[in-house]
Amino acid sequence: MTSAISVRGMSKSYGRRQAVRELDLDVGYGEIFAILGPNGAGKSTTIEILEGHRKRDAGQVSVLGEDPGTAGRSWRARIGIVLQESSDFGMLTVLETARMFAKCYGKARAPADLLELVGLASSSGSRVRTLSGGQRRRLDVALGIVATPELLFLDEPTTGFDPEARRQFWDLIRVLADDGTTILLTTHYLEEAAALADRVAVIAGGRVAAVDSPARLTAHTSSAATVRWMEGDEQREEQTDHPTELIRQRSMDGTELAQLTVTRPTLEDAYLRLTGQA
Ligand code: ADP
After folding, report:
1. Cβ(74) – ligand 1 distance below 6 Å
2. Ligand 1 pocket: which of 11, 13, 17, 84 to mutate (most atoms within 8 A of CB)
3. Could you read off the pLDDT of 13-27 as tens digits, one per residue?
4. For residue 20, what are the contacts with CB-CB under 8 A and spacing of at least 6?
5. Mean pLDDT, rounded, of the chain
6. If 0-12 CB within 10 Å is exposed, 13-18 middle and 19+ buried, where does residue 166 land?
7. What's the gap in Å between 272 CA and the centre of ligand 1?
8. Which residues make beta-bridge pairs with 237?
């Protein structure tokens, strides 16, 4: 089997609103794969269908070799899910919560090891309701990986994080990926997709607009560099695939190009173009 997730022609409507339209997707084993798109693009609907939490109207879907619409308990034990909303274990401590979850599975990580892994060992005795947002999300991940899933779903995992907490959370995701876990995450943060994902699917209006590595997405959708400089009081600007050549020509007679800059398109430019928000 080549793909951890394979989707062909998947569609889903809520009444007359079509949330997902004939979507195709392939996620390889061991990949960190991001579904990136603006609010309402169909990210959550897609991930919920793949998790087996929502029925699709049409299309073929295979997750770890089974159809999530009909797969049973043994399949469910192989996947981990971190929902957008945390469950409420406010009165329990972090360790008690981890123990409670570990008991639900035959083959579970030892609670203390689990908390060490997600960086919550020093908060073991804290009540869940006293945790910060970032710590709370780490606990959610801990509960999602308690049974060492092969595939982990993360729906908008770092919404509302400060930059420091976000970076720490990314490190945790990388540790899990290095351990061999396949990770599918949804996000509306460009920098999250760029920093974490091996590949990104940009979705807009329920369709996949493009799939590629962050670097290739950026290069493919808009490859030209922008060269800017000043001539007297006038700002000059040219788009080119060969900025070195352009600069060489412009400065051949020894002219100094004042305030010379060369900028490449970013993932943000690619994203805005793909989602039609440019
Ligand atoms: P995203 O996660 O990218 O923000 P969603 O999958 O949540 O997108 O939503 C896609 C579209 O489907 C949106 O237009 C949204 O309003 C609509 N939608 C999502 N969930 C429901 C629901 N339970 N009932 C009706 N419409 C929904």
Report:
1. no
2. 17
3. 999 999 999 999 999
4. 10, 11, 12, 42, 45, 46, 49, 56, 206
5. 90
6. buried
7. 20
8. 228
